[in-house]
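G., the chain you wanted modeled:
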Amino acid sequence: MPYSLPKFGKMIPTLSVITAAHDRIRPHIHHTPTLTCQTLNRISGADIYFKCENFQKIGAFKARGGVNAVLSLTPEELQNGVTTHSSGNHAQALAYAAGLVGIKAYIVMPRTAPQVKKDAVRGYGAEVIECEPTLEARESTVEQVIAEHGATMIHPFNDYNVIAGQATATKELIEDHGLFDIIMAPVGGGGLLSGTALSAHYLSPKTDIIAAEPEGAADAVLSFKTGHIEKAPYIDTIADGLLTNLGLKTLEIIRLHVKDILLVSDPEIIEAMRLIWERMKIIIEPSCAVPFAALLRNKERFAGKKVGIILTGGNVDLGKLPF
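Predicted structure as tokens:
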């Protein structure tokens, strides 16, 4: 990265680091519920526990990592505010976290990001700076913000304190419901998946971690195989929250502790999303449905298994539902 990252969180988070992160953020987040659905169990053939981060502060798991990262900064790093680039949920998380400590947040968002997410970021008091929808444009705009304001960069996923915060969702899931055969999460930049894998590694080491990714943003599955940061062959998916490539930190953890990454099509994502809306009566966004879609596509692999699925968020534009 061309910009300087804060000098904290230099090691892969240990269990004690994840526990400290959980204690740090606990007053500022929800201990989200875990829901089951007998109809979806019957359809899938698995015993599924849905960890509902769609009920989290800011409507997504990202609140965990954003709050932990901001509360881990030194007074000097907080002095000129914080900045990041994000298509939505990390943007809201950082805006929310900055508000907790009374500092300015400068959020770089692609102009194509859902309007509902831009409005939410502004609603938390942050300044939104729009850019073209490319990684290069996002990073160069963040560089300009840092040069102008001296803000501290909080990367959306390639940051160990963000990863430690995201790990607390699976920590809660295991502490609440015991050991699992499999825990699933979607993968974009890999912050949640890394944290999920670490918590399971420490607390339920026999659990397989299986990720899911859209066919129209299939970079993580390639990176997982080669050990290098790869780009997707093409980008075309409804799961707008999963368009980012992995980072070096997340790739290392994923290759150490993740069993497999499964691909799903957009029609499969939409069908899984609709099933959860209709049968569980809860709002989830398309990216959130990707793991359940992967389970339905590979039923034989999950048959009879106790499966945890992180429902990552519910920040969907209700005016643009795919069904």
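The chain has a mean pLDDT of 94.

Shout if anything looks off.
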